[in-house]
Amino acid sequence: MTLRTRIVHVALLSLLCLSTTVRSARADDPDPHFENVQSALAAWDLDTAKREATAVAESPQRDVANGVIAVYEGRYAEAESLLAGALAGGALPRGGPTDEARHYLTLARGSTKALADAITLTSDDGTVVAVFASEKDTLIAPYLFDAMTTARKALGDDLGVWPSHAVRFEFLDDPLKLAMVTLLSADNIRTTGTVGVTKYRRIMMVSPRIMLFGYGWLDTAVHEYVHYLVTLRTKNNAPVWLQEGLAKLLETRWRREQPESLSGPMAYRLHKAIVEDELVTLEAMYPSVAMLPSQELAALAYAEVQTMLELLRERRGAPGLALLLDRVAAGDDAKDALATAWGDDFAAFMHEWKRVTRKRTARGEDGPLAKREFKEDDGPPPEALGDIFSHLGGGKARQHARLGTLLQQRDHDAAASMQYEKARAADARARKDPLLSRRLGHLYSTLGAFDRAAPLLDIAAAAEPDDANLAAAQGRAKLRTGDHDGAREALGRALRVNPFIPSLHCDLAQLAPDEASRLRETAHCKPGH
Questions:
Q1: How many Cα atoms within 13 Å fall on the side-chain side of residue 288?
Q2: Among residues 337, 360, 383, which one ends one of the domains?
Q3: How many domains in the chain?
Q4: How confident is the model at residue 11 (pLDDT cuts 50, 70, 90)?
Q5: Do residue 130 and residue 163 come from a single domain?
């Protein structure tokens, strides 16, 4: 080989090595179509994500893109296979694609395990798909579908969003499973009483069956559906505080025009937080209210943002909310968008909100907040029969109430009822006392004296409207006395909190509007439970 030939040969080898190096560097770069898939998924635009995924060069990146899309569509086993394979090859670019693959692989594996024996049901109109980890929880499907039919119309009108695809709900039968499908920690879930999360274009909830006293699961389902719609409406640009404010404001929209007022204890806490400048900041709500250190702080955060958005709607109407969402969708900072909708700067809005809310909550009364408690086992909560009447003082009312308790513990129900009546007669406060009214109302129901039970249970239920067992007892008493409208209202409250009270369905069967409903309720009826 001549010197000239050797020089040319070396030059060609160098060029070949350089070309290989350039190709390797380019192979190690994220594919621009892959980045487009990520952007589309962030906005829940699956059609665009799928189209862009087909344009990703055939490589592990394409497998990651299709694996993540499979997670969004609930095809967890397929997602796990694609993502695990992409990572095993070791050819993914560092950073984004690798991190994304690991994150969604963990999610796919958790979801596959949590929903290993899942049962899937679809609403008659095809707009809702409900996936149940346990067959026991399929009982709630028809009530979910009915509520979502109403919510779809009401919230579609309010927010201008009508999903063109079926909305996916997943109901888990263990708080640990909720952690597995959301990647929240079990401590986050138990500390704040988190029962629902909307992410990855699906709604994940725990069954009311696994809660000690149930929870407002239908309102929660609609609350999460509001999150779903706001995410679509704003292309996922709405921050946590705006998402939660709208969800709390509209969670009861499926069953009433206006949101329910804050409870006395919640109003008291919000008032105190404003006066003492101890509000949960909007920034502290990020990345999730579920990560706040207590249920009480989470409840305060919800109350703050609900009343903020309520004030905006009161003063600026539906156009104000629409403008807020339009600006956020366009990329404006949410505080700036709210200021635009309000017509002044954000500080001026907050000043007015504090002034108005401080006045409205001034009559709040201190007391315990309702807390969500997970069952430790499958047994029903015990019915307390201890002395719960210390608040009646040391006079005759308490003496008679204590004697009534002792008699009831010994199954002397008629004699116990007489002592409870003497307690009510001895003190004007005792006649309206919710605890004594509840105890005596339940006792009269046991004795079959429903006409005497109904007004007492009304007093008790007014103090604890979200107590499912109390609402069920109230509904039964009203049904037995011929007050069918009152019975429907009370039984509906019980159903919204704990549809797993067997006797509840016996009474609902008697009020069923059609034969199909009657047969459904009769199938779940277990008298005496």
A1: 18
A2: 360
A3: 4
A4: very low
A5: yes
Q: Which residue has the tokens 């979502």?
A: 148
Q: What is the mean pLDDT of the chain?
A: 92
**Dihedral class, residue 433 (left if φ above 0, else alpha if ψ from -120 to 50, else beta):** beta
Quick check: is 164 in a domain?
Answer: yes
Determine, yes or no, domain membership for 421.
no
Question: Which pLDDT score, from 0 to 100, does residue 26 have?
Answer: 41
Residue 515: CB atoms within 10 Å: 8
279 contacts 371 by C-beta, under 8 angstroms = no
How large is the angle between the packed helices 295-329 and 264-275, nearest 10 degrees? 80
Q: How confident is the model at residue 529 (pLDDT cuts 50, 70, 90)?
A: low
Listed residues 114, 139, 164: the one ending a domain: 114
Q: Is 139 in the same domain as 279?
A: yes
| Non-local CB neighbours of 251 within 8 Å, separated by 6+ positions | 219, 220, 222, 223, 226, 259
| Rounded CA separation 422/224 (Å) | 48
167-172 and 202-206 strand pairing:
parallel
Residue 17's pLDDT band (cuts 50, 70, 90): very low
Task: Give the tens place of pLDDT for each residue, 357-408.
Answer: 999 999 999 999 988 999 875 555 555 555 667 777 778 988 999 999 999 9
pLDDT (tens digit per residue) in 173-186: 999 999 999 989 99
Helix (H) or strand (E) holding 65: helix 60-72
Q: Give yes or no: residues 132 and 260 share one domain.
A: yes
Domain that holds residue 15: 1-30
Euclidean distance between CA atoms 234 and 246, whole angstroms = 13
- Report if residue 416 sits inside a domain: no
CATH of the domain at 490: 1.25.40.10
Residue 393 maps to a domain: no
Separation in Å, CA 397 to CA 67, 423, 429 = 67, 4, 9
- What pLDDT, on a 0 to 100 scale, did the predictor assign at position 381? 54
Q: Are residues 132 and 77 in the same domain?
A: no
The backbone region for 517, taken as left when phi is positive above 0, alpha when psi lies in -120 to 50, beta otherwise, is alpha
Could you tell me the pTM of the whole model?
0.91
184 and 61 within one domain: no
Q: What is the pLDDT of residues 447-463, one digit of tens each?
A: 999 999 999 999 999 99
Check whether residue 11 and residue 38 sit in a common domain.
no
How far apart CA 86 and CA 65 sit, in angstroms, is 10
